[in-house]
Design goal:
21 helices; about 50% helix; alpha/beta; about 10% strand; globular
Length: about 475
């Protein structure tokens, strides 16, 4: 079942209710301008003054722009003030619903509307053009990013790695700032988020560029990434190339540019999208080989990996995880049935895997809980249990860019929350004789990693105390 049809059923399930409560550790694959609920953008950003909108003549795609006067360039569309159009509509709720529908990929019949990968990718790309006019306006930018971090935190996430193009932030007069300014605003928003959320590790940025650009542009971007890595070493953690991989340039095309850091002895970790394809023997799946040769830290998506035994062996030998994004993979038409996702093989064979959500707001998903549900119920074995979920959340922290002390602190935060989560679920279902749920052939701690005392008030208070202690340590060490 397509996620658009399955979501109402998932939201009613007891499994999803439990997964929502579960501490998720880290989310390591998500893109910057698709982390905050579209409804927030509509109800917040488009209600601000000086917001203009239009629908393009060619495809009817929605565009936004903040300006101190009505934009005079009507070559692609006719600009109108959102405030005026909303008032003239006569139905504010219907108007806002129209804006939502114009931004989201969610439709009643996705199979009829999105008949090919290229077609759904075209609509997908239009979302970013629409959102960017709102997100990268100076007065919206930090609010948007903080709200995104808040939504991930409320969904049980302790740390987020965000892939960001570091696009220019603009002002009402049309002036724009440079790449470093955008990165600094991300870092400022992250710092503002942390004091109010001491049980979170916040976020770090993976700088990205588009795999459709020419070689001189990528050379310039790589050199910028090297510079930003030096000036913001604790916040900018690496580099990646993004966009539709099947129609983009292969990594090999940019080989000279991507070798610049190693040739100069510079530290710029790579986190490449690679093998995001159904095809075999094309440049897209062969990106997996080049990603490994370029010493990638993780593999984004990696659907093609199961067709390359040597790639799989190399990934396992070097402990390089695959970033699995199940809902994104289905919506973008890499498969119809979630059970056929290549990650099923990776999980079954014990390959390192971390769960991401890619661009969850575009398909109306939660920050990460829906993706965990799809993996647990559709990708993993029907015999999988709490052990798999626990391993995936722990691995998300272990394979993150967090340094030694940061990683341990995040793991401590997660561990304290995990114990509280277990108590909460036992209490929700009034389970006091939990031993009867444990297979007799396995030790109880392997299936439900808590003691009988964990259901008692004293143990619960002890776990709360541990969590607060970790939070205090974090506050005094940051």
């Amino acid at each position: 079942m397509h996620f658009f049809h399955a979501k109402p059923l998932i939201d009613q399930s007891q499994v999803f209710e439990i997964i929502k409560l579960m501490p998720k550790g880290a989310v390591l694959h998500v893109h910057d301008n698709a982390i905050t609920d579209i409804n927030w953008l509509i109800k917040n950003a488009t209600y601000r003054p000086h917001c203009y909108m239009c629908f393009t003549y060619e495809r009817g795609a929605l565009q936004f722009q903040f300006s101190d006067s009505q934009p005079t360039d009507n070559s692609i569309c006719e600009w109108k003030l959102v405030e005026t159009e909303r008032a003239a509509s006569g139905d504010v709720d219907a108007f806002d619903k129209m804006l939502y529908d114009a931004m989201s990929l969610v439709v009643d019949d996705p199979y009829a509307k999105y008949t090919s990968q290229n077609e759904v990718w075209t609509y997908f790309g239009e979302y970013f053009v629409t959102a960017d006019g709102l997100v990268f306006y100076s007065d919206v930018f930090e609010d948007y990013y903080r709200e995104g971090l808040k939504e991930f935190h409320e969904d049980g996430v302790q740390f987020t790695e965000v892939r960001a193009l570091l696009q220019p932030i603009y002002e009402l007069d049309g002036s724009q700032y440079d790449t470093e300014y955008t990165l600094q605003r991300y870092e400022d928003a992250n710092k503002d988020f942390l004091p109010d959320n001491p049980d979170s590790m916040g976020s770090k940025i993976i700088f990205t560029s588009i795999r459709l650009l020419d070689k001189p542009t990528i050379e310039s971007v790589v050199n910028t990434a090297i510079y930003l890595r030096k000036t913001h070493p604790h916040f900018l953690v690496g580099f990646d190339l993004v966009a539709q991989e099947d129609t983009g340039q292969p990594l090999l095309f940019y080989l000279e540019e991507l070798l610049i850091p190693s040739e100069q002895g510079e530290d710029l970790p790579y986190y490449f999208h690679a093998g995001e394809t159904n095809w075999q023997g094309v440049h897209t799946d062969e990106n997996l080989i080049d990603a490994l040769l370029l010493n990638t830290t993780r593999i984004g998506h990696g659907y093609g990996a199961i067709k390359h035994p040597s790639v799989l062996k190399n990934m396992k030998d070097r402990n390089i995880p695959t970033e699995v994004n199940p809902i994104s993979s289905q919506v973008l038409k890499h498969f119809d049935d979630i059970r056929n996702m290549p990650a099923a093989y990776l999980i079954a064979e014990g390959y390192p895997v971390v769960i991401g959500s890619d661009d969850p707001v575009v398909w109306g998903a939660s920050p990460i809980s829906h993706d965990y549900y799809e993996v647990f119920m559709g990708v993993a074995s029907a015999r999988s249990d709490l052990r798999l979920l626990k391993q995936l959340t722990m691995d998300s922290i272990s394979y993150s860019s967090l340094t030694g002390n940061e990683e341990q602190l995040c793991m401590d935060l997660w561990a304290a929350k995990w114990q509280i989560f277990l108590d909460k679920v036992l209490d929700m279902y009034n389970i006091t004789d939990w031993e009867r749920y444990v297979p007799t052939t396995e030790p109880a701690t392997d299936v439900l990693p808590f003691s009988r005392a964990a259901t008692q008030d004293s143990a619960f208070l002890l776990q709360l105390s541990l969590l607060f202690t970790v939070i205090l340590v974090k506050m005094f060490t940051t």
